[in-house]
Design brief:
The complex is a heterodimer of chains A (253) and B (233). With 253 residues, chain A is of the alpha/beta class. Chain A has ten helices and twelve strands. In chain A, strands 1-4-5-6-7-10-11-12 form an eight-stranded parallel beta barrel, surrounded by six helices. Chain A is globular and about 40 Å long. Chain A starts with a strand and ends with a helix. With 233 residues, chain B is of the alpha/beta class. Chain B has a nine-stranded mixed sheet, sandwiched between helices. Chain B has a three-stranded mixed sheet with strand order 5-6-9, with no helix packed on it. In chain B, strand 11 and strand 12 form a beta hairpin. Chain B is globular. Chain B starts with 6 loop residues before the first helix and ends with a helix. The chains are: A alpha/beta (253), B alpha/beta (233).
Chain lengths: 253, 233
C-alpha cells in the first residue's frame, strides 16, 4: 500500500538551518548538510528545503550549499527559494533535486509554472501557498516571508495554480508556523476538497496526533513538520529527530 | 617504449602493466555509463552510484555507449519526448546493440518504460527490448480516491529470482512517481510487483536487460542495495 508521506520541512537562511515562529524570529538550528545526513539515517520519506531569504534579500539560489546537501540526500528533495527561471530549474534538477517549489515567482510570473510543468512534468512542480488569516476572516496568500499580501484567497490560488500546471500544493499556515498548536484543519479541508492534485499540509504540527488529523480530517495527501523535526519539544533545545516508522504507520493506520 | 612492441607484449613484459590491466578491467566493469539525453535528473543517479562504491560517467555519445560495460538509462518526462531525444542523439541503435551484446542495461522509471514496444502515453515505438506495452493507471469508480500520479513510497516484492533483486525479496520500500506502468507479454519477464489499486509490474528483466519503475537513487537503504546489486552483476 502507498504510505502517507511525512516529511521534514527545513528552512535555510544564509547557508544555515533556522526555524521561525509565525514566519518571524529565525533561530539557528544547525548545518543543513549535517541535518540531511541525519534524516537520511532516519530514512525519512522526503524532504522539503526552503531558502527563506533567497527572494526577500535578493540573494538568489545558494547552489554551493545545495550541491553539498543534495549529494548527501538519498531521498526525494523539494527545494524552494529564489527560483525565477526555467534555467534555474534545469540547474537544480541536474544537481539532483526532484521537485521545485515556487512561491513569489508563481504569482509574479504564472507562465513559469506552465513552462516548467510542460518541460519537467507537473510531478516536479510544487507551488507553496503561505497563507494568513485576514482581519475579516478568510485566508489570503502571502509572499516574501509573509510580508507581501497577494490578496488572493487560498482556495482560489490553489485552483489557479493547479490549472497552470502545479503538480502539488504545499499549504503553509503562517498563523500556525512554529506554534505546535495543531494544523488549521478547516483551511486544509477547504483546499483539498477544491483541487485534485496532492496537498502537503504544513504549519502547526505539534504531535503525531496532529499529523494524523491533517490527513484524516483535512484530507491532506502528505504532511510536513518543521519544529517537530528540529526541536526536542515546544520551548526546548535543538534536536534533529523524526518519528519512528512504526509510530508513523500507527498514526496513519 | 619501443613502438614496434605490441601493446599486449609490452603489458605482458611489464609487471606494472600487468597490474594495470587487472586494475583497468576491474575499474571498467564497475564503470557505469549513464545515458545523459536531457530527459532525467542524472545528478541523483551519479550521486548514488558513487555512494555505493561504483564509478559512473554521464555520456550522450553513441561511441561511449558502444564501448560501455554497463549502461544505465534514467528518465523522467514523457515517452515520446524521450524517444525523440534518443533518436536525435543517435542513441537508439547503440542501446539496442548493448542489449544484443549482453551488456547489462538498466532502465529507471521512464527509462524502464522505454524498454517496451509502445506506450499509451505516446505514439512512437519504444526500444522493444522486453516485450510489453506501457499503460496508464486506470481504476474502478470505487477507487476514484486514488490519485494519479502514483507518488510516494510503496512496497515492492520480487516475483522472480535474480541477482538484481537479492536482499529485496520482501518488504522493501521504494519511492515512486509515475502515471503509467509496464505490462509484460510474458510473465517470466516480471521481476518486481507493487500494489496501487491493483498489482502492477514495478520491475522487469529479460537476460541482461532490466528496469525498475521506482527511483532507487532516491530510496535510501533499499536503493543502495539495488545499485550494489547492479554493480555486482
Amino acid at each position: 500500500m502507498l504510505a502517507t508521506r511525512l516529511m521534514p520541512c527545513l528552512l535555510m537562511s544564509n547557508g544555515a538551518l533556522v526555524k521561525t515562529v509565525r514566519f518571524k524570529n529565525p533561530v539557528y538550528v544547525g548545518d543543513p548538510v549535517n541535518a540531511v545526513r541525519i534524516f537520511n539515517q532516519k530514512e525519512v520519506d522526503e524532504l522539503v528545503l526552503l531558502d527563506i531569504e533567497a527572494t526577500t534579500h535578493n540573494r538568489g539560489i545558494d547552489f554551493e550549499t545545495l550541491e553539498k546537501v543534495v549529494s548527501e540526500c538519498f531521498m526525494p528533495i523539494c527545494y524552494g527559494g529564489g527560483v525565477n527561471t526555467v534555467e534555474d530549474m534545469r540547474r537544480l534538477f541536474n544537481l539532483g533535486v526532484e521537485k521545485i517549489s515556487l512561491g513569489a515567482a508563481a504569482f509574479e510570473n504564472p507562465d513559469l509554472i506552465r513552462q516548467a510543468s510542460a518541460e519537467f512534468g507537473n510531478q516536479a512542480i510544487v507551488v507553496t501557498l503561505d497563507v494568513k488569516k485576514g482581519l475579516l476572516g478568510g485566508h489570503s496568500v502571502r509572499t516574501h516571508q509573509g510580508k507581501k499580501d497577494t490578496r488572493i484567497d487560498a482556495v482560489q490560488a490553489a485552483l489557479d495554480m493547479e490549472k497552470l500546471g502545479a503538480g502539488e500544493i504545499l499549504l503553509n499556515s503562517i498563523d500556525r508556523d512554529g506554534t505546535w498548536s495543531g494544523f488549521n484543519l478547516k483551511l486544509i479541508r477547504e483546499v483539498t476538497s477544491a483541487i485534485g492534485v496532492p496537498v502537503i499540509a504544513c504549519g502547526g504540527a505539534g504531535s503525531l496526533q496532529d499529523v494524523r488529523l491533517a490527513v484524516s480530517e483535512g484530507g491532506a495527501s502528505a504532511v510536513a513538520i518543521g519544529s517537530m523535526a528540529v526541536f526536542q519539544g515546544k520551548d526546548l533545545g535543538v534536536l534533529i529527530k523524526f518519528p519512528k516508522r512504526m509510530d508513523q504507520e500507527a498514526a496513519f493506520a | 617504449m619501443d613502438v614496434s612492441l605490441s601493446r599486449e607484449k609490452w603489458f605482458a613484459e611489464s609487471a606494472i602493466g600487468a597490474a594495470g590491466i587487472a586494475n583497468l578491467s576491474d575499474w571498467s566493469v564497475k564503470l557505469i555509463t549513464v545515458v545523459d539525453y536531457g530527459a532525467g535528473n542524472i545528478g541523483s543517479v551519479l550521486n548514488m552510484i558513487r555512494k555505493v562504491g561504483g564509478q559512473a560517467e554521464a555520456s550522450s555519445k553513441p561511441d561511449k555507449l558502444r564501448s560501455a560495460k554497463k549502461v544505465l538509462l534514467p528518465g523522467v518526462g514523457s515517452f515520446d519526448n524521450a524517444m525523440v531525444k534518443l533518436e536525435q542523439l543517435e542513441l537508439v541503435q547503440p542501446l539496442r546493440d548493448c542489449a544484443a551484446l549482453g551488456v547489462p542495461l538498466f532502465g529507471i522509471c521512464l527509462g524502464m518504460q522505454l524498454l517496451a514496444q509502445s506506450s499509451e502515453e505516446g505514439a512512437l515505438p519504444g526500444l522493444a527490448l522486453i516485450p510489453g506495452r506501457v499503460r496508464r493507471f486506470s481504476f474502478n469508480t470505487g477507487q476514484s480516491a486514488l490519485k494519479i500520479p502514483h507518488m510516494g513510497w510503496n512496497q515492492v516484492s520480487a516475483c522472480n529470482r535474480h541477482p538484481l533483486a537479492e536482499g529485496l525479496e520482501t518488504g522493501s520500500r521504494f519511492y515512486f512517481v509515475h502515471s503509467y506502468h509496464y505490462e509484460c507479454e510474458d510473465h517470466a519477464d516480471e521481476l518486481f510487483k507493487t500494489h496501487y489499486g491493483y498489482d502492477f509490474v514495478s520491475g522487469v528483466q529479460r537476460g541482461n536487460v532490466m528496469g525498475v519503475q521506482f527511483h532507487p537513487e532516491k530510496s535510501h537503504r533499499f536503493g543502495m542495495r539495488l545499485f550494489k546489486n547492479f554493480i555486482g552483476l
